[in-house]
Amino acid sequence: MVKGLREYFPMIRTKNEILKEIRQEKNLNDLFDSWKKEQQKEFLDFTSGMKGVKILYDAFFKEIFNPEIKPERLEALLSLLLKQKVKIKCILPGDNSRIADESSLLIMDILVQLEDGSLANIECQKIGYKFPGQRAACYSADPLLRQYKRVRGEKGEAFCYKDIKKVYTIVFFEESTDNFHELPDDYIHYAKPQVDIGLEIELSQKYVFIPLDIFREKLYNRGIVTPLDAWLAFLSVDDPEWIEKLIQQYPEFVPLYEAVYAICKNVERVMGIFSEELRIMDRNTVQLMIDEMQDEIDGMKELLGQKDELLSQMDEKIRQLEKRLAELSSG
Description:
Layout: H1 15-24, H2 26-34, H3 37-47, H4 58-64, H5 71-82, E1 88-92, H6 100-103, E2 106-114, E3 119-125, H7 132-155, E4 167-173, H8 178-181, E5 189-191, E6 205-211, H9 212-222, H10 227-236, H11 240-249, H12 254-264, H13 267-304, H14 308-330
Parallel strand pairs: 3-4, 4-6
Antiparallel strand pairs: 1-2, 2-3, 5-6
Helix pairs in contact: 9-10, 13-14
């Protein structure tokens, strides 16, 4: 029986201690009271060790896997996912010109350059959206084009397309789309562009898709079997019982959890992290509703033909949702 994560990480404070600090600061108290009751409970649960922290929150992930401080952590994860030894050269800035609604669909996004010159873009979606392949292709196109412009600028007339290195797009889904669930035994999918059988052409874009909800189902049935299982459990499991199993089987994850709970000691900072994640998830939910409503409208148009009044009502709902999404994005 699990006694709670405070047994393993003494720096974790109790709910009462955390709540007392929140109530003593007006700005923190007002922010806390603006959350729904279930959101307040979720925040207190993970900061007090009653549940695990969502490691894939952007701020937590970038702190724990910061290549400038602890490159070996992200290198270990990428080496297992890409099935080759990788060494990180540097972290690259995101692209501010990225389409606004595309970036809002993500809850984590980090781009690194590897020692061999290739790029790895690691992303996480809270909710799996429609057309994951098309979206991933767009995500991959951006760093590929940026690499092309940079390398061509550096080499000038000496530039050769052989200088373009691979771009890996690695997408974690906390909740994956239906097509992933058609293969319930598989939680890692590798993809790359293909040409006709027999023709060998080196194409630069490669993809890895990891539906973490399917991984967790496999985990609960068979346990932690491989080092990659351990990393995926660290990234996606918030059940204290499974966190206990993970650190007992792989004690090297203890320092990572200690780093997470060191962040949680700063209540103001972690409340800001949680609040931002709530805003992102709210935008994601609205965007998903818009996608689903658009599908419904398209179906109505095909089936009902001239039912203009009904379609007008549906279009109005879409406009209302888009307005709400715009308000959330500007908030």
